[in-house]
Design a protein that fits this description.
This protein is an alpha/beta fold. The protein is 35% helix and 16% strand. It has helices at residues 5-9, 24-30, 33-42, 58-63, 78-82, 104-107, 116-135, 138-148, 174-183, 199-204, 212-218, 238-243, 261-269, 311-326, and strands spanning 16-21, 43-51, 66-69, 89-92, 111-114, 166-170, 189-193, 208-209, 221-224, 249-252, 274-277, 297-299.
């Protein structure tokens, strides 16, 4: 049988020989009892459970048709693929696969899927909440109210409210598109900057396409949703931050490396702009970072993505992909070889 998705599409419904490449605690976190039962109806789990090393499960790897991967999966290299002649698919029950999957998998005709779309949901929810709170300048007022005990807005604070404001989104990624959907419920004007989107697509998403400088100069709130790639590192330059209107807010739930950290600290220390940062560069920040003590900066410890009970959504997405494979269907969240270089 050739190692390609056509072979999967033509297969009869059956249990797929599956090797679970993640730690046992990760497996327990991803798959509830009910979800594990669903998984075992379509997957013949090799090695009796999760494995943390391919070398320790050489016989099972040789027979595996599917690698079900998660956080902590060992690298899937050409050598691993050589030892897995029956492998048809890698199904990742987490976000990015770029940290452990060698692009050679596509040359071998092996299908690859991830739960990145499922992980984008809580990030988008977090970003939307941050946008709404940012419009109210809730984080500045929290500290003001805590110390003043005065029931009125902080004197001299930027204009409060979300009606008629301009929200700029950098990146129409999975998360960016979910945020765009959710922004339709607000009375706001939305700008979008993304080199892979044209004006027609932007309008369909509910936004006006523009360049980065225009977006930063005209937005009351800027939310980042671009992947961190060599070409996007320090994408948000000192010049772009300086172009933001006084009182504007930068929200980053993507990657800290997208932003010139020194320039951001300078702008925030001046009090000219606010920031909501779930990711930073470096991560974690040094204990003496000024961002921890500034009233106009709200920092959280990289928790926008799937956490706690949200992790089960990732397991659900992976099991659903395996069910499709077992039924001879194509995966919904398959990653295309041509997109591998530009995805997060």
């Amino acid at each position: 049988m050739p190692n390609d998705q056509a072979a999967l599409a033509g297969a009869r419904p059956r249990r797929l020989r599956t090797l679970v490449a993640m730690s046992e605690p990760t497996r327990a976190e991803l798959f509830s009892s009910a979800l594990s039962e669903r998984l075992e109806r379509v997957a013949d789990i090799a090695a009796g459970g999760a494995i943390g090393s391919f070398a320790a499960a050489a016989d099972e790897l040789a027979e595996a048709e599917v690698l079900l991967t998660g956080w902590g999966c060992p690298p899937i290299t050409a050598e691993v693929l050589d030892a897995a002649p029956n492998l048809l698919a890698v199904v990742h029950a987490a976000g990015t696969v770029k940290t452990f999957v060698d692009p050679v998998v596509f040359e071998r005709g092996i299908a690859v899927s991830s739960a990145a779309a499922a992980n984008a949901v809580p990030v988008a929810e977090f970003a939307l909440a941050a946008i709404v709170f940012a419009g109210k300048r809730a984080f500045r007022h929290r500290d003001w109210y805590r110390t003043s005990h005065v029931k009125r807005p902080l004197p001299g604070a930027p204009v409060i409210g979300n009606y008629g404001t301009t929200i700029g989104l950098v990146g129409a990624s999975r998360t960016g598109r979910l945020v765009l959907e959710r922004l339709r419920g607000l009375d706001v004007d939305v700008l979008l900057s993304d080199p892979y989107v044209d004006e027609v697509d932007a309008a369909r998403l509910g936004a006006r396409l523009c360049d980065l400088k225009t977006l930063f100069a005209q937005s009351d709130v800027v939310s980042l949703h671009a992947p961190l790639l060599p070409e996007t590192e320090r994408l948000v330059t000192a010049e772009l931050l300086a172009a933001m209107p006084d009182g504007a807010v930068l929200i980053n739930t993507a990657r800290g490396g997208l932003v010139d950290q020194v320039a951001l600290e300078r702008e925030c220390e001046s009090g000219r702009i606010d920031a909501v940062l779930d990711v930073t560069d470096p991560e974690p920040l040094p204990a003496d970072s000024p961002l921890f003590r500034l009233a106009n900066v709200f920092v959280t410890p990289h928790l926008a993505g799937a956490m706690g009970n949200e992790v089960r959504r990732l397991g659900e997405a992976a099991v659903a992909e395996l069910e499709r494979l077992a039924a001879g269907q194509s995966m919904v969240h398959a990653i295309r070889a041509e997109d591998f270089g530009r995805i997060a």
